[in-house]
Amino acid sequence: MLKIFFLVFLINIASAAVVAPTIYEQRDLGTPSLEEFTYSISVDCTSASINLYVLDEEYKQVEDANTYLKYIDFAQPLISSGETDKAGYILHKLPGNVKLMRGFFILVIQKNGFRNKEIHFDIGRCYNDEVPPNKPDQEKLEPVVPEEPEVEETVVPDAIEPKNETEEIDNTTKSEEDEETSPVELCPGILALLIVYKFFRG
């Protein structure tokens, strides 16, 4: 009983990891008289890969069929290519995290003698139960205005005119001459004698 429970548990895990993609469109291109491909496709969400079996109209494996996997949201859409082995099997690895690959894939199968088959699908079942991851919100950065440095007001002293030494010397000389020739301050006696002389003479 325990073994059966464990086996069921493993089957549930495996079924959860490998899912069928959602196919939106498939087209057969080329001459209508050529044989058409049939296929079996699944997505391994854990290992980020697509398993493809290419078959003919009688469900027989087709060896050496060329397969091209494109993802339309990439700048370079072709992400994987290769040929099927003897069992008609090929594994296409997906780059990055499959939960972020929410756009459409295009799978092209080609081989001489067959019509080309083009399949449009997505892998939404790998992330349907999860909230789509959002890009981190970028903080709105307000422009930083640099603070103007405080300018200290400096008092500029009035321009001091250079002293003219020659003028100072001349002024000093003139003042000395004035002091020497001033009759009141230097020679009051001479003035008095002149007044007396005029008085007696006249």
What does this structure look like?
The chain has helices at residues 2-17, 165-181, 188-201, and strands spanning 18-19, 22-29, 38-44, 49-55, 66-71, 78-83, 89-93, 105-110, 116-122. By secondary structure, it is of the alpha+beta class. It folds into two domains: 19-126, Sandwich (Immunoglobulin-like); 166-201. Strands 2-9-8-5-6 form a five-stranded antiparallel beta sheet, with no helix packed on it. Mean pLDDT is 75; it is low at 1-16 and 135-141.
Short description:
With 202 residues, this protein is of the alpha+beta class. The chain is built from three helices and nine strands, in the order H-E-E-E-E-E-E-E-E-E-H-H.
CATH architecture assignment of the largest domain? Sandwich
Instruction: Identify the strand order in the major beta sheet.
Output: 2-9-8-5-6
Per CATH, the class of the largest domain reads Mainly Beta
CATH topology of the largest domain: Immunoglobulin-like
SS-based class: alpha+beta
User: What is the residue-averaged pLDDT?
Assistant: 75
Quaternary structure annotation: single chain
- Termini separation: 171 Å
- Provide the succession of SSEs: HEEEEEEEEEHH
For the largest beta-sheet, the strand count, sense and barrel status come to: 5 strands, antiparallel
Summed up, the helix count is 3
Tell me the helix content.
10-25%
Task: List how many beta strands DSSP finds.
Answer: 9
Rg: 55 Å
Beta percentage is: 25-35%
List the helices and strands and how they pair.
Blueprint lengths: L1 H16 E2 L2 E8 L8 E7 L4 E7 L10 E6 L6 E6 L5 E5 L11 E6 L5 E7 L42 H17 L6 H14 L1
Antiparallel strand pairs: 1-3, 2-9, 3-4, 4-7, 5-6, 5-8, 8-9
